[in-house]
Amino acid sequence: MSSTRHKEELKKLLQRPENSICADCKGKKSLEWASFNLGVFICTDCVTVHRSLGVHISKVKSVFLDDWTDTAIQIMADNDNKSANKMWEKRVPIFFPRISARNVEMLREHWIKAKYENRLFTGEKSTIPLSTAKRGFLWKKGKIKNEWNRRLFVLSDDATTLSYFINEKDIEPKSEMSVECINATLVGKQKLGKPYGLQLLYKESDGKTRNFYMYSESGKEVIDWLCAIRTAKAAVLGCLYKSIPEQEEERISRMLSIEFLHEGYLEKTGPKENGAFRRRWFSLYDRKLMYFKGPLEPYPLGEIDIGLQDRGYKVQEDDIASHQRGDGFCFVFKTPGRNYYLRADSASEKRKWMRALNEALDSVHFYLNGK
């Protein structure tokens, strides 16, 4: 088979619906690379990690620039990304966070290595940890001062609490959190200013929402902490040692941690429609829209519950406000008690926010109706 014929055959394989997204990060970037011994097409970002695995695990070629053999072409033809992942991602442990558009830059290397190098997701061996306890040092952002302090974090033996201590020799912790009330997510450089960080959203006993931010120089250490917290939460909820049906995995995973749908700066008015705009950091989390003075503030200035659309919750264009204020980036989030007039920095950000809010509204209907 000629080189030209090889390229034509590979183009046809890439047109298969099963090969429409990267086998690893699930992104829709141009798939210009392939691991021909694994039979998968991958993107330019994931190929760097594949190269680090070594050729005994993954042998990569450029789809369009490298020479291909008939044998390698046949391997790719006999496989596709979707069928390959039925083996390589057959049983992702419930405590391991799934890769997504939001966490991909932090999780990519660890996901790919766990998937192919450690074969952690194939179901070949038990992945349930023998202990849910963990202790170690992380850098934590101060609640009042904008500084980072090295603190000892301890996940209890019974998996019920996460505590941190000012000093290693302290007997009493500075703070103790119930694991069941923690939502832990990865957070990176764009928000935190550090490449590998964790955000803990915690519901305090008085009902207030509190954010904790911490980081480590080691990406593996951060992901180990995230997995440990999810493992502990699964143990508390009684689902760590159970066999979870495939159709229940997404629901259970959401119980362990939920990623933010969208975050960023918006401007909002006060209760009066014609009030002045104030710039706030907004976080869309599950069925709640929160706004803060800045991205790393511990407490929100306000929280907006998101309910069912047939009960008066809606996001729509705000043509009147846009006309009055001379731009096209305004929209309104309507609730039964109040309309929130919001302004984005650009048309693209406005579309992202409206799309994310509509997704949140749809998820409310989905989960409240059990569909």
Automatic annotation (TrEMBL):
Gene3D superfamilies: Arf GTPase activating protein (1.10.220.150), Pleckstrin-homology domain (PH domain)/Phosphotyrosine-binding domain (PTB) (2.30.29.30). This is ArfGAP with dual PH domains 1. Residues 131-234, 259-362 form the PH domain. Keywords: GTPase activation, Metal-binding, Zinc, Zinc-finger. GO terms for molecular function: GTPase activator activity; phosphatidylinositol bisphosphate binding; phosphatidylinositol-3,4,5-trisphosphate binding; zinc ion binding. Residues 7-129 form the Arf-GAP domain. It comes from Trichoplax adhaerens. Pfam families: ArfGap, PH. GO terms for cellular component: cytoplasm; plasma membrane. SUPFAM superfamilies: ArfGap/RecO-like zinc finger, PH domain-like.
